[in-house]
Structures are given as structure tokens and as C-alpha cells.
Amino acid sequence: MGNWYNVVGDKDFNGDDYRCATATYTLKKDEWWNPYPVEVLNRKDSGGSVSDGKCNGIFGRQACARARCTWGNGACNVKFGLAPDANYLILDVDYDSHALIYNCDTWLGLFYTNAMWINSRAGTISDANKSNLKNILKDRVPSFIYPADEQMVDVDQVTNCNYGF
Length: 165
Fold this sequence. Notes:
Elements (H helix, E strand, L loop, with lengths): L1 E9 H4 L7 E6 L10 E6 L1 E2 L2 E2 L13 E6 L5 E5 L6 E9 L3 E10 L3 E10 L6 H14 L7 H4 E3 L11
Antiparallel strand pairs: 1-2, 1-10, 1-11, 2-3, 3-6, 4-5, 6-7, 7-8, 8-9, 9-10
């Protein structure tokens, strides 16, 4: 839980202007009835203005999500508004340092998408740690499913970032 910086992402999923991206995860302990007890507020700096990461309206926005995870195996379902659940798998985590997340989905049986993220508690991650996490991804997800060498790109977290937390 808490604040995380997105330091590595998927080049197709994130786009060219993806920079200064963060997420805040909050366990809603008082919502015992909620099947998605984790609130996720995603933010990014777009030309000097920071998205607020808040849910607005019945459909929500992609900036806001709710999640539920099976404790112990890293499998999570993430819900953006009224869209079907997205399948996330936390492949590696050190709650003081980093998290490696992989997402893969088949949508309505028509098409397949996948992506990955490396989040860090700081705005940077060492090259050695990044290389280690990339190797974990390559060991767990075959390259014909996710070509990590081609898809993984660094996310700019140091050039005039404005953070919303």
C-alpha cells in the first residue's frame, strides 16, 4: 500500500508522453462488504498539470481503479469503472523497494492484451535491480507471449515532475 513511482513500463501501453507516473494504493479496511477493497489512484504529469487520479461519474476514469488480490500468490483482479476485470499478476515485490507487475487479458474472446510495470518507492531504480526484475519477468513469461527486450522502456521520473500526493 502507499505511494509508488512507475519507473519502467510497456512502450505500447504507456505511449510517448508517459512521464512522472505514480500510483497510490489504499486498503479500505472499513469497507468490509466491498469485493474490491483496494483503491488505486493512478496519476501522471501531462505537460505540467497532474491528473488527480480520482473517480468521477458512474463509469469512472482510467485513472481510478479498485482491486482485489488473492493473498499469497500475487494474482489480482483490477476494475476500472464498468469495464470487465483486468488480470494482474505481481511477479515480485519488496514493499520497501519495488514491485514487478504483469497484466494479460483476453477481451470478450476477441483479442489479447498484455503489459508490464516496474514500480518503485523512489523515483529511480538501480540498473542492477531493473535487470534482475527483467530476468524474473523473462523467466515467468515466455518471450513469444511478452517480448520484454522490445517492450520495456524507462519512465521519465526526474524531468520537472509534479506529483499529486
